[in-house]
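It is worth pausing here to work through a concrete case rather than discussing structure prediction in the abstract. The textbook approach is simple: state the sequence, then state the predicted structure, then interpret. We follow exactly that order.
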Amino acid sequence: MAKLVVFIIALIMATIVQGQPQ
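Step two, the predicted structure:
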């Protein structure tokens, strides 16, 4: 269960990074 939460957080973080202009 914890791994699922970590995976979701990592996915969100990756999405935010892709949304950055850099």
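Step three, interpretation. The chain has a mean pLDDT of 91. The radius of gyration is 10 Å.
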